[in-house]
Amino acid sequence: MTENEISREIVDAALKVHKQLGPGLLESAYEECLYYELIKRELLVEKQKTLPLVYEEVKLDAGYRIDLLIEKKVIVEIKSVEALNDVHLAQILTYLKLSGCKLGLLINFNVALIKQGIKRVVNKL
Fold first, then answer.
1. How many other CB atoms sit within 10 Å of the CB of residue 40?
2. In which domain, by residue range, is 105 found?
3. How does residue 28 score in pLDDT terms, banded at 50, 70 and 90?
4. pLDDT for 98 beyond 80
5. Is the distance from CB of 63 to CB of 48 less than 8 angstroms?
6. With the C-alpha atoms ordered 28, 34, 36, 39, is the resulting torsion angle positive or negative?
7. Which of 17, 62, 63, 92, by CA, is between 20 and 30 Å from 51?
8. Helix (H, G, I), strand (E, B) or coil at 41
9. How far is CA 121 from CA 26, 37, 59, 108, 118, in A?
10. What 3-state DSSP class applies to 119?
């Protein structure tokens, strides 16, 4: 699957989760439900994947964790906040750069309509 095909599956799954749960829950609840939906679609999903920082050829455990990594190609960062801000965007951009992935989705479930809470982020490698 291409990044775009994977992205479509993720957005569709997020829509289903948001429709059933609505806004206002903890990020961990949305993460578990989205993980479940993506597994049902037979996608390879890694949850809370550690992401080391490589500095001068040394791998350092800096505590970075990707919420969901799908098919080793697309990163999903889940939020449940009043509004996405620049720090959230910087976080997913950092994850994209450190992982070498091209595409990330920043999904804020704390919105009335889920399409208002999805931001597509591209790593221009």
1. 10
2. 3-122
3. very high
4. yes
5. no
6. negative
7. 17
8. coil
9. 23, 22, 25, 13, 10
10. strand
